[in-house]
Design goal:
Elements: E1 9-13, E2 18-23, E3 26-36, E4 39-47, H1 56-70, E5 74-77, H2 80-88, H3 101-112
Parallel strand pairs: 4-5
Antiparallel strand pairs: 1-2, 2-3, 3-4
Bound molecules: coenzyme A (COA).
């Protein structure tokens, strides 16, 4: 008999500006952000090779975006994976803002700190 697939657990870790995903208690990946006023700017998503290709990034990003909505914030998708996810999932269009050169410049400054 095969074991049932473990349910991924997504958490927001404010101190590290990221949402993490764990499988069976093991860290499997994260999506990182910085907040600019009421906008949560997502800039990098990563799933460890050992967990790749089973839809974990989609689970992680969906829960993160739902959390953004619940907090009354907006989404800015600098991360190409998040941008691609948003193209396929129009239900977040009402809380998504475009990436502007100003946002990229601001993000650069944030990440150099
Ligand atoms: C991209 C990444 C997070 C996907 O993780 P995953 O759990 O294997 O992904 P899923 O199984 O949920 O989804 C696979 C999807 O990711 C897409 N994808 C893979 N690499 C991508 C990239 N660099 N940019 C955008 N989308 C990407 C695939 O096209 C596929 O899309 P589909 O669902 O429309 O077919 C993972 O491959 C990774 O960590 N890559 C290295 C870091 C990286 O390039 N991050 C993205 C840019 S910040």
């Amino acid at each position: 008999m095969t074991e049932p697939a473990a349910t991924p657990v997504v958490r927001r870790v404010d101190a590290r500006h990221r949402y993490t995903v764990e499988v069976d208690g093991e860290p499997a990946g994260f999506t990182a952000y910085r907040d600019r006023d009421d906008r949560r700017v997502f800039f990098h998503t990563e799933i460890d090779d050992a967990f790749a290709g089973r839809g974990l990034a989609a689970v992680l990003v969906r829960e993160a975006l739902d959390d953004v909505r619940a907090a009354g914030l907006r989404i800015v998708p600098v991360c190409p994976y998040v941008a691609k996810f948003l193209k396929k999932h129009e239900e977040y269009a009402d809380i998504t803002d475009p990436v502007t050169p100003q946002t990229l410049e601001w993000l650069d400054g944030q990440l150099k700190r």
